[in-house]
Amino acid sequence: MSQEILEISVRVDEQFDVNFNLSDGVLGLILSIFEG
User: Cα separation of 3 and 19, whole Å?
Assistant: First the structure.
């Protein structure tokens, strides 16, 4: 049981990581456009 919960939390963590990096990249792109 605890093993399954651990795997799910790791997957959620990875998904959040990807989303965070994506939004970070988009923010950086928008900032560079405004600065340019």
Answer: 25
List, in order, residues 6 or more apart from 15 with CB less than 8 Å away. Answer: none
3-state secondary structure of 1: coil
Question: Token pair of 24, please?
Answer: 């970070």
Verdict on whether the full-model pTM lies above 0.85:
no
Work out the end-to-end distance of the chain between its first and last CA atoms, rounded to an integer number of angstroms. 52
Residue-wise pLDDT for 1-36, tens only, equals: 689 988 988 898 888 888 788 888 898 899 899 987
For residue 36, give the 3-state DSSP assignment.
Answer: coil
